[in-house]
């Protein structure tokens, strides 16, 4: 089999479904390039960009962490809390979210759970801005 059956799924529905030649993900343990017939694995993902490569086109999806699962038969599923295709990213909203998170980080005590939460918000916003610019 020369392609991978790829899907990116969130609690709000499927954001991506298609047959691709390669998927690049950023796992917590490092970057991974997944080709057809990859061994089965499950790996946690960073807040990052997923690149889906097929004939002549590269597509990008922003993911808010989650997991990548590779199953036998070249089936790859990414399960994540939130995901947006590059073309669906609202840049103005991400820019506002970034500024709001930066403001909260400046006001909050570093030891609080709210600070950690604001750091995640900042990462999500910066990731969306990055993916939109690809
Ligand atoms: P915001 O403060 O703008 O809501 P957030 O990081 O808190 O940002 P999430 O909780 O990660 O947002 O996502 C909530 C929903 O909104 C998800 O369905 C996500 O895909 C969508 N979403 C968030 N930001 C954007 C964006 N900039 N463009 C398009 N969809 C977005």
Bound molecules: adenosine-5'-triphosphate
Question: How are strands sequenced across the largest beta sheet?
Answer: 2-1-9-8-5
How many helices in DSSP terms?
2
* Rg computed from alpha carbons, rounded to a whole number of angstroms: 16 Å
Strand content: 35-45%
Distance between the termini: 29 Å
Largest sheet, in brief, is: 5 strands, mixed
Helix coverage percent of residues? 25-40%
Pfam family, one: ATP-synt_DE_N
Coiled coil: 79-128
Subcellular location: Cell membrane
Function: Produces ATP from ADP in the presence of a proton gradient across the membrane.
What's the helix and strand layout?
Layout: E1 4-10, E2 13-20, E3 22-27, E4 30-34, E5 41-44, E6 47-54, E7 57-64, E8 67-71, E9 75-79, E10 83-85, H1 91-107, H2 113-132
Parallel strand pairs: 1-9
Antiparallel strand pairs: 1-2, 3-4, 3-6, 5-8, 6-7, 7-10, 8-9
This protein binds adenosine-5'-triphosphate.
Adenosine-5'-triphosphate binds at residues 12, 64, 82, 84, 88-90, 93-94, 97, 121, 124, 128.
């Amino acid at each position: 089999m020369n392609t991978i059956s790829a899907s990116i799924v969130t609690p709000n529905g499927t954001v991506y479904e298609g047959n691709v030649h390669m998927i690049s993900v950023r796992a917590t343990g490092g970057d991974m390039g997944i080709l057809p017939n990859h061994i089965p694995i499950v790996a946690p993902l960073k807040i990052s960009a997923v690149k889906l490569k097929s004939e002549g086109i590269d597509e990008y999806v922003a993911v808010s962490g989650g997991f990548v699962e590779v199953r036998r038969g070249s089936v790859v599923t990414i399960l994540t809390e939130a995901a947006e295709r590059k073309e669906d990213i609202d840049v103005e909203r991400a820019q506002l979210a970034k500024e709001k998170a930066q403001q909260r980080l400046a006001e909050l005590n570093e030891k609080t759970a709210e600070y950690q939460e604001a750091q995640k918000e900042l990462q999500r916003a910066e990731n969306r801005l990055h993916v939109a610019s690809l």
